[in-house]
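FORM 12-B: Structure-to-Sequence Request
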């Protein structure tokens, strides 16, 4: 009778049985059904994919590529501030248009004219004449009908044009900058050289043509902008400009260029599938014409394709928005699906070697019992990571995670049904000695020696005419066992690996401190887009003066009370004291009104006088009437403006917004600060919080899954270590590869967690369950069993996304870059760092030698090669 078990063994077995044994029984039952009747498991996924694939008819309706809606926080404060401005300050672009007072960017076409000679000025006579010709070419009769108007005429595209008309350029030194009279030129002239505040030279001039977007002309305005984009290049060419060069942009450009990104990536799908199928076939190629696994490899790739078709169709049926970021998902799913295929084929081959005479039902049952648990672990961790990723403020991330997480579920189901049935059918073909390509029976015997060598090589697998024998251990596994394992466990090499890890960790932490936040809007366009030169000119010549910010008094206050006015003035000065604000260019109706009162022109010390005398203010400066929401009894809301400066980077934008809101919050008067650009700035305030939240929750979920399905404390410790280390590495090295922390890279950091588990869990578990006597030998055995599968899985995933490196779009290149870092660092941990570190700490928590059995030894031997 067997003696009592070791307590550690009892604990491990008890924890394992509560989860693993029911799963193994479930998988064995499923395998029995698949082996008995394989054809339904082939046909049902095909029919289901076809049915769900019909959801693609809704694709045009489900496309939701609105940049604001998808790449800004759903509940961003700026959106609520915009709604408040819209309700309380009505616009009228047919009579009293004012660009700084718009609650949105408006409908416009913009041109930047830059003097071609590096030392010349757009105010030189030749350049100025070309600017006038350019303006005349744009200002056609249709524009005259649709233009935004103020004081009965079209709003001028540039203050200098409205002043001078067709006259010659202003004389050097006649203009002041940035304010010339009542005109603010900070956004009209760029690259300005001054002497005592007077303009000597200006390298660039901006023309902005606003159109009406309110009322029935809105659709006509859009058509005019579309026509502008189609014709501007030819118009500029016809003008034969020699003194200026022109870049252009419209309010439609950013959205149109972003929507074109999906079209640019479609050709890459065919390249990806070709590479993946080729890799899968080569990995599973055998010399025997009977035992060749080419069809298995092809069906494994097909299984991933069916998963994409089914999941995307289902999501489209359910009305989930299809965002451009979702176009990344098929590349990732393909790599992971092939990885699962390798696991299934490897376990099947192991079952064949152990039970060559067994029936197909028992072979598939053992294959599922060994492989399905591993596939379950990796799928569960990945799916959890994606569905946790839906808890985000960014709709683009939410859509990507829903589509991809659902696709992983289908990929898992189809691997266990469709691909399992293909395994059975392929085995029956082999049992019938049928050729892998023609399915014709191949007769093997002594008479085959009389045939030619070429015939025997094609039909038998060897020139001799004798059937090829099953191969033994894969050469890569032999290399890892005999050469790489002993090399990596050498004491001096281990010291070197520790130093290498220290350098990796130090570089990663430094990179994390330098990480940049937020998505640059230029990155939403194709590299070859016409908007890129425009953005470059704008950054180069017009970045000194930033957004002109509305400061809104959001409630009715007693303006006629002097203490209230002093409180408002104090708040205004606090805002002006921010380093990003130039107080010389503020615009406040209350300051002007108070100044009139101090000069004795009006009385504002009582409520009736304050309200009734506003008409005097409006006669002097009519535009101030648009800044006061006044009823008969009170002023419900009002606003003034402050001018920001030197907002040249995402860091500046983040600090500007946070400092403005903090100053407004500290004010005793209820204030809101708003500019249309703040809609996009809001991402800076939540991106880090959302990323950390998702990463921490997902990592915690991964740890729970690891404890349930890999019930060994030491193993779970190393899984946690790998997750943290890989995330830090990816986040840090993003900086060195010029990748910002934005909604796109946040997707990949969530993916990072799932893949960290994939690479680390099985290596560490194989180590702690090894029956070898020393830590070094256990590490070598873990590498020999799982080193090649880890490497093969990494290669298959990289092949799934590598074509994105050739994309001309930031979104897809970023996806490739971060996935490359994830796979590189994950494989580096699985093949280098963890095997070395386990030799230092591995004596704690490993199972006793006498508890090992062949079954336990092979349980996580997910060798993915196809010998």
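FORM 12-B RESPONSE
SEQUENCE OUT:
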């Amino acid at each position: 009778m067997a003696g009592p078990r070791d307590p550690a063994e009892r604990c491990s077995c008890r924890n394992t049985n509560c989860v693993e044994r029911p799963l193994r029984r479930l998988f064995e039952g499923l395998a029995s059904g698949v082996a008995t009747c394989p054809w339904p498991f082939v046909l049902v996924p095909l029919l289901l994919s076809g049915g769900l694939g019909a959801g693609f008819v809704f694709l045009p309706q489900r496309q939701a590529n609105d940049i604001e809606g998808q790449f800004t926080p759903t509940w961003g404060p700026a959106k609520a501030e915009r709604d408040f401005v819209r309700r309380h300050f009505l616009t009228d672009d047919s009579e009293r248009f004012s660009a700084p007072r718009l609650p949105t960017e408006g409908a416009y076409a913009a041109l930047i004219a830059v003097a071609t000679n590096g030392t010349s000025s757009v105010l030189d006579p030749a350049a100025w004449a070309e600017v006038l010709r350019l303006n005349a070419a744009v200002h056609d009769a249709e524009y005259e009908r649709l233009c935004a108007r103020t004081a009965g005429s079209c709003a001028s595209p540039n203050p200098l044009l409205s002043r001078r008309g067709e006259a010659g350029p202003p004389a050097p030194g006649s203009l002041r900058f940035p304010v010339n009279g009542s005109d603010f030129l900070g956004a009209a002239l760029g690259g300005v050289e001054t002497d005592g505040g007077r303009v000597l030279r200006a390298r660039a001039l901006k023309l902005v043509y606003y159109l009406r977007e309110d009322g029935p002309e809105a659709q006509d305005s859009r058509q005019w902008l579309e026509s502008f984009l189609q014709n501007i290049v030819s118009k500029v060419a016809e003008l034969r400009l020699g003194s200026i060069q022109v870049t252009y942009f419209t309010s439609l450009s950013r959205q149109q260029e972003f929507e074109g990104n999906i079209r640019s990536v479609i050709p890459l799908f065919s390249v990806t599938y070709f590479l993946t199928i080729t890799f899968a076939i080569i990995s599973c190629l055998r010399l025997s014409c009977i035992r060749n696994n080419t069809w298995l490899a092809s069906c494994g790739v097909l299984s991933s394709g069916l998963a994409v078709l089914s999941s995307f169709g289902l999501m489209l049926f359910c009305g989930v928005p299809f965002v451009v970021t979702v176009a990344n998902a098929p590349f990732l799913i393909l790599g992971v699906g092939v990885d699962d295929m390798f696991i299934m084929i490897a376990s099947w081959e192991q079952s064949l070697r152990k039970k060559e005479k067994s029936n197909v039902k028992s072979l598939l049952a053992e294959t599922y019992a060994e492989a399905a648990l591993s596939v379950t672990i990796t799928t569960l961790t990945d799916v959890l990571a994606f569905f946790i990723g839906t808890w985000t403020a960014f709709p683009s991330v939410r859509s990507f995670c829903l589509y991809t997480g659902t696709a992983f579920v289908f990929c898992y189901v189809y691997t266990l049904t469709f691909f399992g049935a293909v395994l059975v059918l392929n085995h029956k073909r082999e049992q019938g000695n049928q050729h892998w390509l023609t399915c014709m029976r191949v007769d093997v015997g002594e008479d085959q020696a009389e045939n030619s060598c070429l015939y025997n090589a094609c039909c038998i697998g060897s020139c001799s005419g004798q059937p090829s024998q099953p191969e033994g251990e894969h050469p890569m596994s032999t290399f890892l066992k005999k050469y790489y394992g002993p090399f990596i466990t050498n004491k001096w090499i281990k010291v070197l690996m520790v130093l290498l890890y220290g350098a990796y960790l130090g570089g990663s932490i430094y990179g994390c401190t330098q990480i940049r936040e937020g998505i640059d809007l230029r990155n939403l366009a194709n590299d070859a887009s016409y908007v890129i030169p425009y953005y470059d000119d704008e950054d180069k010549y017009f970045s000194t003066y930033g957004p002109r910010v509305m400061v809104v008094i959001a409630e009715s206050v007693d303006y006629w009370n002097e203490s209230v006015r002093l409180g408002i003035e104090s708040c205004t000065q606090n805002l002006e004291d921010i380093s990003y604000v130039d107080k010389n260019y503020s615009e406040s109706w209350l300051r002007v009104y108070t100044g009139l009162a101090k000069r004795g022109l009006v009385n504002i010390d009582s409520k009736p006088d304050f309200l009734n005398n506003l008409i005097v203010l409006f006669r002097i400066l009519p535009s101030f009437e648009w800044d006061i929401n006044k009823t008969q009894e009170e002023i419900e809301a009002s606003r003034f403006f402050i001018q920001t400066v030197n907002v040249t980077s995402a860091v500046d934008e983040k600090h500007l917004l946070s400092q403005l809101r903090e100053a407004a919050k500290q004010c005793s008067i209820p204030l809101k600060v708003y500019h249309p650009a703040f809609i996009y700035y809001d991402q800076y305030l939540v991106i880090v919080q959302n990323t950390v939240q998702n990463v921490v929750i997902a990592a915690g979920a991964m740890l729970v899954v690891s404890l349930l399905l890999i019930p060994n404390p030491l193993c779970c410790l190393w899984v946690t270590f790998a997750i943290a280390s890989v995330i830090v590495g990816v986040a840090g090295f993003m900086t060195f590869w010029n990748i910002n922390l934005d909604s796109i890279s946040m997707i990949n950091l969530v993916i990072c967690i799932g893949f960290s588990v994939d690479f680390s869990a099985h290596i560490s578990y194989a180590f702690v369950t090894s029956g070898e006597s020393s830590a070094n030998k256990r590490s070598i055995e873990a590498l020999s069993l799982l080193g090649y599968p880890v490497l093969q899985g990494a290669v298959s995933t990289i092949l799934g996304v590598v074509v994105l490196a050739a994309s001309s779009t930031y979104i897809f290149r970023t996806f490739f870059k971060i996935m490359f870092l994830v796979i590189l660092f994950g494989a580096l941990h699985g093949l280098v760092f963890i095997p070395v570190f386990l030799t230092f700490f591995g004596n704690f928590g490993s199972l006793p030698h006498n508890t090992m059995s062949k079954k336990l030894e092979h349980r996580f031997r997910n060798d993915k090669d196809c010998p």
